[in-house]
Amino acid sequence: MPISIADCHADTLSRLLILEDDAQSLTLPQLRHQSDLPRMRQGQVRLQVFSIFTMPYEAGHYGAVRSLQMMQIYRNDVAKHSELVMVESAADLADYETSDKTLYGIFSMEGASPLCGDIKMLEVFYRQGLRAIGLTWNHRNELADGLGVQSNYGLTAFGRQVVTRMNELGMVVDLAHINEAGFWEAMELSRDPIIVSHADAKALCGHRRNMSDAQLDAIKSNGGFVGICFSPNFLNPKPTEASLDDVVRHIDYICERIGPDHVAFGSDYDGIETTPIGLEDVSKFPSILERLDGLGYSQADITKIAHGNVLRIYRQVLK
Prior knowledge:
- The structure is a single chain.
- The protein is an alpha/beta fold.
- The chain contains eleven helices and nine strands.
- Strands 1, 2, 3, 4, 5 and 6 form a six-stranded parallel sheet that branches. It has a three-stranded parallel sheet with strand order 7-8-9.
- The radius of gyration is 18 Å and the shape is globular.
């Protein structure tokens, strides 16, 4: 049986939200997008963390409404298609390796502006199935500063409250996009392993969103992982030349630095305007595993990178 893929970050639901109501389904071919269920099947993707993303101008209550609308798109699909799973607890992942289910879906908020600075909103979103939060996007919000803000400020009092409550509820803390001060403070505060859902190695490409060696080492010590991102800007200083080769290069570097227990996939499909050569859409995922196999990676390590590390963290953190 082919090794299945868990992808920690895709913006497909935000793409579907702008379509007419009768087209808002993951199960329909969406050839203008980079991901849909038919191509996920081709690419062996069986676990998808769906980004619940709103733009800075959609902050506050409008962003909260938009977020709930995105989440309802997948919930509607789950209600109509028994082969789809809505993951809300560790028990929902218990049969991943043995079931014939097509897709396990998890909701993760990218940038916590829709919480509106109100800890009660975290409970509201939790009850709707939210199980992970990327604390910031690139801008400043009520929790912390993103990498687009030039500051050395760490978490706000509300940000610390949110991380603590996420630990209590059983939600995965994601530090993609947060500034360095916030990264280090959240890393120290969280009692659960943290993830960086979509980033690459700064040693290979100096983009501000990539992880430094010190950050990679901290992720290893914390027990978390980095989801390798397919954004050409993160992969190669010459983005137009970014390719499958660069994705493999970043995987190889991070595995050498912190080991295959701390590497996963965070494609950012439907959140990136262009894709690396050879990874044009979600159906191309198996090409990466083939390359890793050709480089001599063991089946055990390929399985960890493909889905094992994601399952480990979500099974550990979710209640």
